[in-house]
Amino acid sequence: MIKNYLKITFRNIMRNKLFAAINILGLSVSLACCLLLFLYTSEQLSYDQHHGKRLLRVTSHLTQKSGEAINIGSSSMPIAPVIESEIPEIKNSIRILMPTLFGSKDLISYEDEAFYIDGGMVTEPDFFDVLKYKFVKGSAEQAFPHNNAVVLDKKTAARIFGSQDPMGKTIKLNSLTGAQDYEVTGVIENDGYPTHLKPTYVISRETSIWKPFISQFDASWVGNNLVYTYLELDDRADISAVEEKIHKIFIKNGGAEMKELGFSKEMHLQPIEDVHTSANLEMDSFQGRSLVFIQVLVTIGVLILILACVNYINLATAQAGNRAMEVGVRKVMGVTSKGLIVQFLGESFIIVFISLLFSILFAEMALPFFNYLVDDQIILSSENMWIIGKYLLMFLLITGLLAGLYPAFYLASFKPAQVLKGKNKDKGVAALLRKGLVVFQFVISIALISSIIVISQQVEFIKSKDLGFNKNSKMVIPLSTDEAAASYPVLKQKFVKNASVGKVTGAHSVPGSHILSDILAYKKGQTMDDAVRIIRNPVEYDYFQLFDIQLLAGNYFDGPEKDTLVSKVIINKTAADRFGYTPEGAIGEILYFDFGTMNFQYRVVGVVYDIHQVSLHDEIYPMMFQLSDGNSAQNMVLEINSDDYQQVLSSLGSDWKQLLPDTPFEYFTLEDHLDKQYAADKSTFDLIKYFAVISVIISCLGLYALSMFFAERRFKEIGVRKALGAEVKDILIMVSGDLSKLIILAFVLSIPISIYGMDKWLQTFAYRITPGVGTYLLAGFISIFIGWVTISYQSLRAARTSPVNVLKDE
């Protein structure tokens, strides 16, 4: 029986080569897309599962009295040890401090080599008891035999020591708190499991150089949210109950401080496996993926697969007339409807199985390009063969049923008496379903085309938006060590003498960087209850002139700070508005900030236009630029007046090495730095763009096959019409008219879907375009044009057919 079914299936494939090829090609491409997208999303959703289900991170929710809220992934220093001691359900807790959160780059030195490194962690001695890592050298139990021990990741160890055994060797680490020697006591494999915690090195917070720095924050329960806190709960713990206990302990210990600072704070517990996809939290040093982005990819994959299944259903039901006689004969010979359903479903599964084989080849070919688009690495190998096999089996079952179920029942429903008399007609439910599926295909395709247009307009808007400062020809040199920061004045003198360098200035944070330093300031006559959260960026006096940031009122800084009691500040317009000042009225006013028994005062000397310190996803927030000396700058900014960057870099690097021979020279351009803010948006745009093209191609393949089928079925009618004097244009309109109407209907139905989807995406930007009607009309015209091109060949071929050739056998 199976052998007979296989024979019939392959005979039908050979008899209808074009239709079979269209089905197999469409399904193969769709399945390849789904395989890549599902492998990627399954990897993204599998992060941190190896650490255990009872491990959670403490997040903080801060709310000002004005109602402004901020959600952050970090928490305050003293919380973890207190709640661990008072809540029995907490088995263990660890705190992680990331030097990169402060904008620090760590300098590692060994023998004559030195280089910068990111991603180091300062944490508890029992870090490896709570979080699970694979040790390739040493062990979790002996990770920190003493306070000056360091555990390196495998790649960092190879970079420092090459093929040498790193165990027991001493490196110098110059970090946020200064330089110190550390003994290598372990090497871990970061890539063994997908995890958001990928430390390049791990050291203990008990290290002599770090302990005093960390201890200064041990008294603050509300402010100084500088650490990432992880809790290990016992198996019986109820997360909601533990959250409530944490809140009570926090109110007891931090309630007074919270009232003093003028805002409220709540803490929540986040499962560790959710951290990688929690891209909505601020102050998060971990580069995760937005859950919305992952959901979009899954949706696109499913839609592309559905489009290919629609092609199969359309072509199978359209060819029903050609197979009606076969069905009638087989039923007369005694084959039951159940047997026919099994046969036709079997054909569907065979087509899908053949497509699966091709899809593996297509996926392998597309893999490098796909990895480039998502800026990540997935593989097709024996290492993940189990999950690949699982997806392939799922695709086979779901696609085989989805594509084959309706055609099988439809074909098996033919009545032998009508079929053998030639009275079976392609109408009713089958014809209506086929039209509905064509409309569905083009609704999806047009919606994706609309998405491409809207996203490209938003990308262009981002590129052309006035950010409030001049970003062109700016080079940034990080001053990542104390020695480099202290050398700023001398470096500046050297660099300004370079003919290719214009202005030079220093700043704690450059545009495009999130600023951690914030205060709650209030004006004269108010208290901390009325305070406004304002971001503070210490800059050198000539910062504004280098960036061409325009004054609204007052003056720029006129030189280094002289008044040590009251600090000079320049605020942005948003800050002036928030305090209730006009730009002119703010000049000379004093802003106050209370912290414990201390009172800080800031005199406003100028108000500047708003600048976009961070991406256009975020609203402009109140900013305070505080005048500082160059010695506190973490970044040196140079205005470059030459197109020969290599020559400039060589010259600057030479000057740097003369002064700092043991410190590597690093730089980045401000434009590249700003572009990194939109890397995720670019990935989204590129993926939608390419998969939209694939969906349109798949839809057009089905449309082409249908137009050919319809034209062939109406050849005799066309012959009669032409014999009676019909012109080519009349025949062309007749043949393509029905399908054109379906495309136009799809265009109308796609408009609300496109508007809804794009509005949701655009809402992630604080500054965005407002797509007009023309955007969606353009998408509709593009789709109609593509559809017309697709069906035009068959329509013209039918219209130009000689009536003699068609009617000669009548």
TrEMBL record:
Residues 21-248, 443-611 form the MacB-like periplasmic core domain. It is found in: Cell membrane. One of its GO terms (molecular function) is transmembrane transporter activity. One of its GO terms (cellular component) is plasma membrane. The chain crosses the membrane at residues 20-40, 292-313, 340-363, 391-412, 432-455, 690-711, 731-753, 773-791. It comes from the Bacteria. Keywords: Cell membrane, Membrane, Transmembrane, Transmembrane helix. Residues 299-413, 691-803 form the ABC3 transporter permease C-terminal domain. It is a multi-pass membrane protein. This is ABC transporter permease.
